Amino acid sequence: MSCQISEERINKTIAFHGHSCPGLAIGIRAAELALQKFGNPSDKEIVAVVETDMCGVDAIQFLTGATMGKGNLIHRDYGKMAFSFFHKVTGEGFRAVLNPAARSDMDEEMSELSKKNSTGNATEDEIKRLGDLRSAAQTRLMTLPLAEMFVVTELQQGAPRPARVLQSLVCEHCGEKTMESRTRRFAGQTLCIPCFGKVEQKI
């Protein structure tokens, strides 16, 4: 079944992100899955955990209302096309991983053409072919049934705990205040992470 989010909302999502692309389509469908499963929760009831920093994260933020500033959009830098959602009230949770078959067999050719295009070595025909492939991939991702789009696993552990407000400490090297949990100790000094990285070689 094609995406059930209204065309108006999709267009607003595209405007929020800045362009339309296959990556954004993946995020739109992931958000659609969460909204369907949880019955359109409010932005304070949902928690989203994303394992990528790709375009689709903007769609999840826009469509679910989860944001980093509210503490209910959490980024885990795993480089996976995987998204977990939790409903704070009901305790429900699930993890959705993009099914590799959802992207059909276009990925390898798209990847090669994208590399050539980014280095300025693609011909006009190759640039056109890349555009056609991206358009076809986007159409496929927006029309696949959600059951074919994602591999879904129900989660039992509940949503990640809310962020805590902690004391700020002054970095003894740069003098900038830093959240306590983000400081490091080195040679008897309290340092922020960037300053710690300048003196500690094993990171």
From TrEMBL:
<keyword id="KW-0479">Metal-binding</keyword>
<keyword id="KW-0862">Zinc</keyword>
<feature type="domain" description="Formylmethanofuran dehydrogenase subunit E">
    <location>
        <begin position="16"/>
        <end position="150"/>
    </location>
</feature>
<dbReference type="Pfam" id="PF01258">
    <property type="entry name" value="zf-dskA_traR"/>
</dbReference>
<keyword id="KW-0863">Zinc-finger</keyword>
<dbReference type="GO" id="GO:0008270">
    <property type="term" value="F:zinc ion binding"/>
</dbReference>
<dbReference type="Pfam" id="PF02663">
    <property type="entry name" value="FmdE"/>
</dbReference>
<dbReference type="InterPro" id="IPR053194">
    <property type="entry name" value="tRNA_methyltr_O"/>
</dbReference>
<feature type="region of interest" description="Disordered">
    <location>
        <begin position="105"/>
        <end position="127"/>
    </location>
</feature>
<protein>
    <submittedName>
        <fullName>TraR/DksA C4-type zinc finger protein</fullName>
    </submittedName>
</protein>
<dbReference type="InterPro" id="IPR026328">
    <property type="entry name" value="FmdE"/>
</dbReference>
<dbReference type="InterPro" id="IPR003814">
    <property type="entry name" value="FmdEsu_dom"/>
</dbReference>
<feature type="domain" description="Zinc finger DksA/TraR C4-type">
    <location>
        <begin position="171"/>
        <end position="201"/>
    </location>
</feature>
<dbReference type="InterPro" id="IPR000962">
    <property type="entry name" value="Znf_DskA_TraR"/>
</dbReference>
